[in-house]
Specification:
Length: 324
């Protein structure tokens, strides 16, 4: 009789241990997937399909532009590609930053054409682990700040751009990088961040929430994710190099955060979380489901979206006026 009780108790302990292991595995699934996700280089196909509709690679000539391509070496050992669109007597310099998987930064040549009409020079920056730039690890907004720093310093050394404001504009991951870099780099005067995420932790939490994962499981999973970010990027970057922290450090630099109310890729809740803690930033939520903010996500015909273009051009003018 006693032997049966012991056997039954032993089985219950094993079953409890098994349940604990299963729960731990479930909690770590997002972390495991992220570990596999970041160690790669994004190459653009040059053609689009139903799954990846923004895989074109545009040339300056597609928008009636001439550009100068450059490759610059960062202090931490990467080589970044950028494309410069010049104008006569520029009033400012805009650095464009693309998204995580798509579109490439070459989609911003349409913006560069718009900026040229306004008298602004442009640089399209392809951050590390993307396209023509080197790197085998996606930076998730942590490490690409060094890419922006390298280009900003290069621009500052060019005679035609002396004392001109440098303004960042990025979408999705590019928007995240823009906020982080604006806080860190003295040469940057301000930024426009389109559909940024508040932090990697927040973005993953909101994705799990969208799939109806209970709050207690999301909270339990979060430390696993953050610890993996520390392993990959280092404690200092993982803990501090996020828009949630950086948007509080920009000081008097103008920051515009734009989100789409129906965005299912990066929930506008990211922008709302930033808005709660940002003292001076400006926020605009478009009544739209377009992740890339532009009407119908149409980068090629951006000038037709007059509400959007008037808003961003007005914001850039405010930055220029504030420096006079």
């Amino acid at each position: 009789m006693k032997k049966g009780v012991i056997t039954d108790y032993s089985w219950r302990k094993k079953r409890i241990l098994l349940y604990i292991l299963i729960v731990l595995f479930i909690l770590m699934i997002p972390t495991i997937l992220m570990m596999f996700y970041v160690f790669r280089h994004i190459k653009y196909m040059g053609v689009v399909d139903e799954r990846y509709p923004y895989q074109s690679i545009y040339k300056p000539g597609d928008f009636g532009l001439n550009a100068v391509e450059r490759r610059l070496d960062t202090e931490d050992g990467e080589t970044i590609w950028c494309s410069e669109v010049k104008v006569d007597n520029p009033k400012a310099v805009i650095i464009f930053l693309g998204a995580m998987k798509e579109p490439s930064v070459t989609y911003f040549y349409g913006h560069a054409a718009l900026m040229k009409e306004e008298g602004y020079a442009s640089f399209l920056l392809e951050v590390r682990a993307h396209g023509e730039s080197t790197g085998r690890k996606l930076g998730l907004g942590y490490t690409e700040v060094e890419d922006v720093r390298t280009l900003a310093r290069y621009i500052g050394q060019m005679e035609e751009y002396q004392k001109l404001p440098i303004i960042l504009q990025g979408v999705s991951l590019g928007g995240t990088i823009a906020i982080n870099a604006t806080a860190e780099i003295p040469e940057v005067a301000g930024c426009i961040a389109m559909s940024p995420f508040a932090s990697v932790d927040d973005q993953l939490d909101l994705i799990l929430k969208r799939y109806h994962i209970p709050g207690f499981l999301r909270a339990a999973q979060r430390p696993f994710t953050h610890q993996s970010l520390r392993w990959i990027y280092g404690k200092d970057l993982a803990d501090h190099m996020t828009p949630m922290n950086q948007i509080q450090k920009v000081g008097s630099k103008p920051v515009l955060v734009i989100a789409s109310s129906g965005d299912e890729s990066i929930s506008p809740e990211n922008a709302y979380r930033l808005q709660k803690i940002a003292d001076t930033a400006e926020f605009w939520t478009r009544e739209s489901a377009d992740h890339y903010v532009i009407q119908n996500n149409d980068f090629k015909n951006v000038a037709k979206d007059t509400e959007y273009t008037n808003y961003i051009l007005g914001f850039i003018r405010k930055i220029i006026e504030s420096r006079k």
